[in-house]
Amino acid sequence: MNSLAFTRFEPLEYTCSEALNTLCTNLSFAAGSDGMKIMVTSCRPGEGKSFISMNMLRTLADLGKRVVLVDADLRRSMIASRYGMQAEDAKARGVTHYLAGVCGIEDVLYATNIKGAFIVPMRHEVNNSLSLLNTPRLPLLLNNLSKGFDIVLVDAPPVGVLIDAAEIARFCDGTLFVVDYNEISRRELNESKRQIERAGCKVLGAVLNKVTFDSLSSKKRYYNREYYSYYAVGSSQPRKKRASGFDEAPLPKAK
């Protein structure tokens, strides 16, 4: 099998690591016998969706899951440069080559230097991403991966920027939103949620990112630095319904 290595994958702060453990454990409970296909997206660029995708890949693998990440941000992927991705073959192929019909699935699936973690990288950026995504090869890729992995993660472009995410969502079991704390309006978030639901994909929940714990009174006396904070998926404690869309999802507060 092809292989590659991540040479710049920084360890997480304890609080961040524990929040990711909670998130990934809940996702593991939701996964069935076939691999669950989860799209990770955001409303805008810069909210940290690729950070969450990559650290979910690592955390799920650490939890003993066999997991694969498909880098489907075909126009502006940051994973290779940010995480120092190095393949053994300098001419290695990626998801755009597969979608264009140049090669098969086995040619774009890579084992990584993290035990249990695999990736279908984005090796070549394109401008006509929608034409590549709108082919039978995308669902074929995701469905085949789901048969060999416990969880398939798909790092998708922001919903509010490109229609690509809605196209990808058609072939996924659920979507996880990454939300930049105090930056995204409820209206913008609800519109992004509706767009995903119109594609026939369930919204699993949200990851609240870039939270400063000084802004959370229950944490004020313990933390003075900025951390990433997360909402877990699902909850055993039902919330009172509100008037509009996204707030109706059962998203418990981060611990």
What does this structure look like?
The chain is of the alpha/beta class and 255 residues long. It has a single domain (2-248), classed as P-loop containing nucleotide triphosphate hydrolases (Rossmann fold). The protein is 30% helix and 20% strand. It contains eight helices and eleven strands. It has helices at 14-30, 49-62, 79-82, 95-99, 129-133, 137-148, 164-169, 186-198, and strands at 2-6, 36-42, 67-71, 85-87, 110-111, 117-120, 151-155, 174-180, 202-209, 211-212, 226-227. Mean pLDDT is 83; it is low at 216-255.
Blueprint (SSEs and pairs):
Layout: E1 2-6, H1 14-30, E2 36-42, H2 49-62, E3 67-71, H3 79-82, E4 85-87, H4 95-99, E5 110-111, E6 117-120, H5 129-133, H6 137-148, E7 151-155, H7 164-169, E8 174-180, H8 186-198, E9 202-209, E10 211-212, E11 226-227
Parallel strand pairs: 1-5, 2-7, 2-8, 3-6, 3-7, 8-9
Antiparallel strand pairs: 1-4, 5-6, 10-11
Helix content: 25-40%
Major sheet characteristics? 9 strands, mixed
DSSP strand tally = 11
**Name of the top-level CATH class:** Alpha Beta
* CATH third-tier fold name: Rossmann fold
The global form is globular
- CATH architectural type: 3-Layer(aba) Sandwich
End-to-end distance, in Å? 40 Å
Query: What are the secondary-structure elements, in order, as H or E?
Result: EHEHEHEHEEHHEHEHEEE
- Poorly predicted regions are 216-255
Mean pLDDT across the residues is 83
Total count of domains: 1
For the largest sheet, list the strands in their spatial order.
4-1-5-6-3-7-2-8-9
